[in-house]
Amino acid sequence: MICNICHTGCLDCHYTPSRERGVHAFSRTPPALSCGGGGRSTFVCHAGTMERRRGDSYLGKEFSEPPGLPEDVHVRLKMECVACHQTGPGGMGHIERRGTCQDCHIEAEEAIAASYHKNVSCAACHVKILGGYQMTSWGSGLIASRPNPFKKYALYYGPMEPPILVKDQAGRWIPMKVWPNSAGNFKTPVTPRPGIIFRWPDGETHDAYALLGTHSIPKGNNLYLAWLQLDQVGHPLGKSRTCADCHGRTAQVARASWEYYDSQGAEPFEGTHRIVGDEKGLRVTDLRLTSELELMHGGKTDDFAAWLHLGDIWKTPGDFSIPKSDPTKYRELDRGIKASLTRLAVIDRRIKAREARGEKVKKLRRRWKEAKAAAAHDPKTAGPLIEEVFTMNGGDGAPVSNQERAAHGSGKEH
């Protein structure tokens, strides 16, 4: 069975026993639960990489780490992972890493492609909170009951909110989880490198890191290699962030809180830190304890909490700020979007009533979808579309509001 930790077979994805269906039950479409390892372990399937490391849980709730984080909106729609991550050119078992939104949300994709935010990924706006471990420290400890200089102390679990937006290799804004890492027992000095380094420069993935070099701690474990980890995230997708959330200021600020509960080093303790991205660079700051730290027998903070001694090293230069904008205009835009969506909701109820009567309104429904996508993603084109839908529906709906006129009446980008 130990081989099964890394090497999967058909049953890992398609064997789905339950109390209702019995023990000899199989599913043609693998359920999302099987992609997460079925709750068996953090070492199989995607539970470790998603819920624990990246913290972008799809299932959320009791499957997230920490438990209770929101589930992805597609879970509520009973959609499985393979609905978006489809079979690749390798055939059965080769599931595409990248999901696609345009198969279902073509109107939104088209609106985004024509908008000021054409270089912003869907997840950049629709992922608002992450979990998993918020810090990692490698140091001396026990692995399989034997001493090891590189025991991984990663159980700093907690939420980070919101993700930090970073430009990928192609200049597209994507959401990232950012957290500090250190590893002791290094003998060879490493020089820091400014900025972030993408692990796959050609874009196979968008994960990156910032190499902060080696640092020393008095009476510590030789040199400590330090880096910031930046992993792209894609879940949990949900209701979008507001315009002001990004454009209210140029600096990005995320807050992380965590609880340490490894089996070695110390009894459980808690802490917080902030992640800041602005025109000066990317940095983790204000790392502090919020509860008492009680060492276990033989525990040393040099091993499991080197961050307590390394000081203000968690930073790299570069421009990680959001492009400057007029906050007043964005507040007006936000109000206009809400007013447009409210008006479209009224029209939607009228269309549904006509659909219930058996009227043929497919063209009207399609234009309504386009108008809704434009209202939320490309407001400058929304006004004419909403008026067209209003007219196609026989003028049955809601009149245009002053907020809508302010948002897209001029046809200018904000």
Task: Provide an overview of this structure.
- The protein is an alpha+beta fold.
- The chain folds into three domains: 1-100, no CATH class; 123-317, no CATH class; 327-408, no CATH class.
- It is built from 13 helices and 13 strands.
- The chain has helices spanning 10-14, 32-35, 47-54, 73-76, 106-113, 122-126, 243-247, 301-304, 307-310, 327-356, 362-377, 382-392, 402-408; strands spanning 136-143, 146-153, 156-157, 160-161, 164-167, 173-186, 197-198, 208-216, 223-232, 252-260, 269-278, 281-289, 315-317.
- The strands form two sheets. Strands 1, 2, 5, 6, 7, 8 and 9 form a seven-stranded mixed beta sheet that branches.
- A hairpin with a 5-residue loop joins strand 5 (164-167) and strand 6 (173-186).
- The protein is globular.
- The chain starts with 9 loop residues before the first helix and ends in a 6-residue tail after the last helix.
List the helices and strands and how they pair.
Blueprint: H1 10-14, H2 32-35, H3 47-54, H4 73-76, H5 106-113, H6 122-126, E1 136-143, E2 146-153, E3 156-157, E4 160-161, E5 164-167, E6 173-186, E7 197-198, E8 208-216, E9 223-232, H7 243-247, E10 252-260, E11 269-278, E12 281-289, H8 301-304, H9 307-310, E13 315-317, H10 327-356, H11 362-377, H12 382-392, H13 402-408
Parallel strand pairs: 1-6
Antiparallel strand pairs: 1-2, 3-10, 4-10, 5-6, 6-9, 7-8, 8-9, 10-11, 11-12, 12-13
